[in-house]
């Protein structure tokens, strides 16, 4: 059920407490995985992303603006940030602690204990996911599971790639280029993921690269 607030233009609606649950379930099913929002389109094979996640254990992206301190709510500050060591508090609330884009996350079992499970346990307190209007910009700007993943990303000092455009993935001894964008007029033939919920119909059916893959391989007939 999606709560609504009067007179509040909302870019993100709902609590999004379901996402940490889904991430935990994926981590229990697969050794590594890529979580993509339903509105995004996979236009080319994401194989390099899976290779990167398998090697590094995570894949995060961020924009060049929008920090944790811009969007964090008062309950998140009181119940999470203030309980961390002072150095971590300063890191999280710094001017360069950007929020990651929770609509495109890659993780592996490597981070089950240090990231996946702790964020999952936070879903027992729904106020940590509530858009209560206490952030700097008020209601409706982000989905609040984004803050939790962002906090752990910075505390664990994990790498994040800046979107949109070209990024470089270090896989083994290689630097593999990858192009991702959310603006439809910036889509090029090399685009791997169109990360937007707008105008997806213009691309027609593009499900060839988005499919269920079992890392364990196909089941063998007995």
Structure, explained:
This protein is an alpha+beta fold. The chain has one domain (18-203). The protein is 27% helix and 20% strand. It contains seven helices and ten strands. The chain has helices at residues 18-29, 47-56, 68-71, 74-79, 86-92, 112-122, 145-155, and strands at 32-36, 41-42, 58-59, 61-67, 98-100, 104-108, 161-162, 165-171, 174-181, 191-194. The strands form three sheets. A four-stranded mixed sheet has the order 2-10-9-8, covered by helices on one side. A hairpin with a 2-residue loop joins strand 8 (165-171) and strand 9 (174-181). Helix 1 runs antiparallel to helix 6 (112-122). The longest helix has 12 residues, at 18-29. It is globular and about 45 Å long. The model is unreliable at 1-8 and 204-222 (pLDDT under 50).
Which structural traits does this protein have?
about 220 residues, alpha+beta, three-stranded antiparallel sheet, disordered N terminus
Give a quick summary of the entry:
This protein is an alpha+beta fold and about 220 residues long. Helix content is about 25%, strand content about 20%. The radius of gyration is 18 Å and the shape is globular.
């Amino acid at each position: 059920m999606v709560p609504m607030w009067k007179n509040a233009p909302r870019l993100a609606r709902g609590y999004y407490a379901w996402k940490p649950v889904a991430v935990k379930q994926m981590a229990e099913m697969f050794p590594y995985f890529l979580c993509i929002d339903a509105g995004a389109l996979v236009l080319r094979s994401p194989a390099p992303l899976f290779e990167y996640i398998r090697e590094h254990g995570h894949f995060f992206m961020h924009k060049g603006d929008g920090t944790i301190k811009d969007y964090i709510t008062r309950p998140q500050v009181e119940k999470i940030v203030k309980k961390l060591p002072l150095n971590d508090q300063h890191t999280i609330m710094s001017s360069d602690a950007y929020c990651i884009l929770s609509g495109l996350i890659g993780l592996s079992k490597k981070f089950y204990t240090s990231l996946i499970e702790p964020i999952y346990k936070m879903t027992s307190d729904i106020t940590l996911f509530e858009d209560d209007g206490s952030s700097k910009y008020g209601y409706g700007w982000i989905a609040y599971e984004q803050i939790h993943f962002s906090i752990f990303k910075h505390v664990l000092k994990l790498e994040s790639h800046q979107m949109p455009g070209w990024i470089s993935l270090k896989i083994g001894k290689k630097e593999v280029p990858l192009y991702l964008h959310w603006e439809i007029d910036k889509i090029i033939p090399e685009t791997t993921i169109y990360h937007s919920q707008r105008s997806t119909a213009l691309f027609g059916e593009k499900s060839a690269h988005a499919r269920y893959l079992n890392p364990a391989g196909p089941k063998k007939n007995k």
